[in-house]
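Notes to self after the Tuesday call (sharing in case useful).
The group wants a holo model before anyone commits to mutagenesis around the pocket. I volunteered. Ligand is phosphoenolpyruvate. Logging inputs and output together so the record is complete.
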Amino acid sequence: MAMDRYVITGGQPLEGSIRVSGAKNASLPLLAAALLAEGTSVLLDIPHLADVRNMLDVLEHLGCRVNWQDEALLINASSLRDWSVDEELMRRMRASNLILGPVLARHGRVKIAMPGGCAIGSRPMDQHLKGLAELGVKVKEKHGYIEAWTEELKGEHVYLDVPSVGATENLMMAAALARGTTLIHNAAREPEIVDLQNFLNKMGAKVRGAGLDVLRIEGVETLHPAEHAVIPDRIEAGTHIMAGVITQGDILVQNVIPEHLEPVVAKLRQAGARLEVYDDAVRVRPCGRLKAIDLKTMPYPGFPTDMQPQFMALLASAEGTSVITETIFENRFQHVDELRRMGARIRVEGRTAVVHGAETLEGAFVEATDLRAGAALFLAALGAGEATVLEKVGHIDRGYENLEEKYRGLGARLRRVRA
Ligand SMILES: CC(=O)N[C@H]1[C@@H](OP(=O)(O)OP(=O)(O)OC[C@H]2O[C@@H](n3ccc(=O)[nH]c3=O)[C@H](O)[C@@H]2O)O[C@H](CO)[C@@H](O)[C@@H]1O
Ligand SMILES: C=C(OP(=O)(O)O)C(=O)O
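Result:
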């Protein structure tokens, strides 16, 4: 991971327009789904991100041929030569666990190193494995590896204890090629699930219900390759909107699906942000100092955990005291210590952070501990009236395409210093 740093001189109102890239969290399951069919699938608007590169390395390791033709990503999954992925590849990114469902459906067998926990929490896989077991898969966990095999995938009723995004995706992909009908109860409802359903159906699958909490998947014999354009990244969009707000800027965030941003826009407006929502863009106008609000992360359509750190950066200089409750990941407050270095006054009690708004944030030396913590510090630095050195921006590269270039286009004063 790149250990480069950003030097950011904040306090400058951002101006102009910024275009959101394709969604990381929709792209990764789409890449995994391409494994389900022989032949070449074509994916459009896939962002050039470290996580996408890591997923492509996993696909190539399994035997796919991958190439970019201008902005189209071609994945040929005609001949898979391997069904196991070792620790080195798995550890680079948790989402590589999304190959479980498709490789089982194609091969009847799969072995992956356990993805393990990460900075934001322990992130177990029990719901993925429980669901696969319901579909007739035998699972063995040994020496840090998950091995799974099946004679035949069979449609079943699966009830998820938590509406896990990754488990829902893995089960959708496995069930697409299972014999009979699968119902996934308490499924995740995120927009990325809808995008995966759309791609699978273009491949010939019969999936219905994405966006609701019960998914119905009628298994088919085979799938064929398809072409699909990934949805815009709602977390990237939300981050840019917040950058406009924190700098008192006047910016147009383009290529958004406003419906996906409703929980974020609603909370920002409650805090006093001035936002104009158009068909495929959001305009941010200067609004003065924000007011404190309370916030709780929830599965979609609740407020997304992937925006909690960035919102905390905003509330750190709002007027009054905000209470932020993180219900999804048990350790997603690592940005708190770093924000404190910038003058934020935040107290953490278990899964709740009490944020006493400071008059202003100050420049400091800070470090990104994970992707969205990094995004939060990036925002805080843009809002601070002095220079901030933000270390370990490799974390940010996982989820934000061309960040430096995009923000220079808005007049931000920042430069990337190579390690
Ligand atoms: C690549 C991708 O799309 N990543 C997103 C995805 O991660 P990911 O798919 O890993 O997140 P999940 O929805 O699975 O996790 C949600 C919650 O369920 C728990 N859980 C999950 C699986 C399981 O088998 N058992 C279990 O208990 C997790 O610990 C967590 O508390 O959704 C998260 C929640 O919106 C986002 O923060 C991530 O950005
Ligand atoms: C937590 C995130 O991603 P991942 O699930 O890939 O770690 C994220 O995008 O904020």
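Two things stood out.
The CA atoms of residues 22 and 231 lie 6 Å apart.
Residues 25, 94-95, 120, 306, 371-372, 399 surround phosphoenolpyruvate (ligand 2) (CB under 6 Å).
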